[in-house]
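Thanks for the sequence, V.! I ran Glucuronoxylan 4-O-methyltransferase 1 right away. Repeating your input here for the record:
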Amino acid sequence: MRPKPHRLSNLKILIIGVFVAFLLLFVLRSSFSSSNSDAFLPKDSKIVIGRAENCSRTCGKIPPSLAQALIHYTTSTITPQQTLKEIKVTSRVLQKKSPCNFLVFGLGHDSLMWAALNHGGRTIFLDEDAVWIEQIRRRFPMLESYHVTYDSKVNQADELMEAGKGPECTAIVDARYSMCQLGLKGLPGEVYDIKWDLIMVDAPTGYHDEAPGRMTAIYTAGMMARNRADGETDVFVHDVNRVVEDKFSKEFLCDGYMKKQEGRLRHFTIPSHRDGMERPFCPL
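Predicted structure:
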């Protein structure tokens, strides 16, 4: 999620293109809705017609949050760490589901993009670096972000993998009350209460032995998906070229639920397990 200044301009062009396409759809949809409404208005209804005329001047206006995102990515020399093809995987799902509830483990220069693509929905970002959160908040105060702490380290991954195979880790319960060592229990209350449509795991830091690693974030994302009342959750894990992200996503999000892998990004679609308690943890 952290910026890499040396990213090439083609990714920047893609992001700008995505926003332009989104804005065009927004304007066209608003114009279409307005014209359809006018078609059914009585010709002698001046009050209704006046309202429609006012709406035609405002309904298609670009929302300030989207305008800021477009300006930022047009003028910024910093681009997200995910590649063009990786970003497309999540953006396609957002096109179908937004506005929706989107939880992102990680906060960075791509966060404004995700929030804008989920315009009208709720996007929450979680990060382990309080100083970094304050830096991003000063630049993008409209983003909803929270500081979280992790009590695990990458060098404990093997131990946590074994612990995760116990019955307490496959029980379908609210993550905050889980008895599993992998369950994250100190997240903000709303993170547990919201039914998430998408979850992105692109944090915490996981590239050295003393880093917190993404073991608990991956496990908790999978359990939140299984514990929702109904429906399914799209879960994305970035950096699956690394050992922890590779093994833990396969073990706790399951090969059978994987829809696609593009570069370093894996996409899983996990159904609710509460509507069928006999459902195995991973599909056979």
